[in-house]
Specification:
Helix content: 10-25%
Strand content: over 45%
Number of strands: 8
Shape: rod-shaped
Length: 243
């Protein structure tokens, strides 16, 4: 039995983590943003805000803290100023969704289907037996024939094999309302993928898409192509068409 030193195990772990990180950085996803914005109802001279989660929690998770910090950063990049709840003209709320769903799909199986042609091969063997009666010779012939056949088949789909698939869905929604409870912005970011989607990835996509264009990202079902530059930073490009 091979004995592993602590240094060797640590080295293997570092290599394994590097491989996982590299795979994560190569992951490219398509993101859907559905948003509505009433820019005319935003007071450009008093863009002060206070942020609270849509559902109040006694204890905030690390993800909640990271989301709030990211929203604050995005808001400030778009000319907003954070203040306390009493002095803020706008309230920013957010909500998250994390779920998965599964289904069954089918993949074709291939093999021999119908007979396309038949090849036959034959061999004939014979023997001669001669008998004499007096001066007369009488010859009998015995023949044997062996025939073999080779069947040629067409190839195609012979059936379908079922397989299960699972997709993960993550969403991050942000809403901005004024003191009269009138909605001035409502946006929802959705990620739907066969691979595992981390909270860090979702926050990075949000920050990239909303970086400097929060109030102008209005419209239904805008599509983005995103990939991770680093473990915590993403780049997203808006697509002019969807496929």
């Amino acid at each position: 039995m091979t004995k592993w030193s602590k240094r060797g195990i640590l080295g293997l772990c570092m290599v394994f983590c590097t491989i996982l990180t590299s795979c994560s950085l190569l992951m490219q996803r398509q993101i859907v943003l559905s948003s509505q914005s009433n820019i005319d109802n935003i007071d450009s001279k008093n863009k002060t805000f206070y942020i609270i989660p849509q559902k109040e929690k006694k204890t905030k998770s690390i993800t909640d803290i990271n989301i709030e910090n990211t929203i604050k950063s995005v808001m400030k990049n778009n000319g907003w100023t954070e203040t306390n709840k009493n002095n803020a003209k706008y309230i920013v709320t957010y909500t998250t969704l994390d779920t998965s769903y599964s289904g069954t799909n089918y993949t074709p199986t291939y093999g021999e289907t119908t007979i396309s042609s038949i090849d036959s091969y034959g061999t004939t063997k014979g023997t001669a037996n001669t008998d004499y009666i007096g001066n007369n010779a009488y010859t009998d012939y015995d023949y044997s024939t062996n025939t073999s056949y080779n069947l040629n088949y067409n190839y195609g789909i012979t059936g379908y094999m079922p397989y299960l698939w699972t997709k993960q869905f993550k969403g991050l929604g942000i809403k901005i309302i004024n003191k009269n409870n009138e909605e001035v912005y409502n946006g929802a970011l959705a990620v739907d993928d066969y691979s595992s989607i981390s909270d860090v990835d979702l926050i990075a996509y949000f920050q990239s898409i909303f970086a400097n264009d929060l109030e102008n990202t209005y419209g239904q079902n805008q599509h983005y192509y995103c990939y991770m530059n680093t473990p915590t930073n993403a780049s997203c490009k808006k697509l002019s068409f969807w496929f």
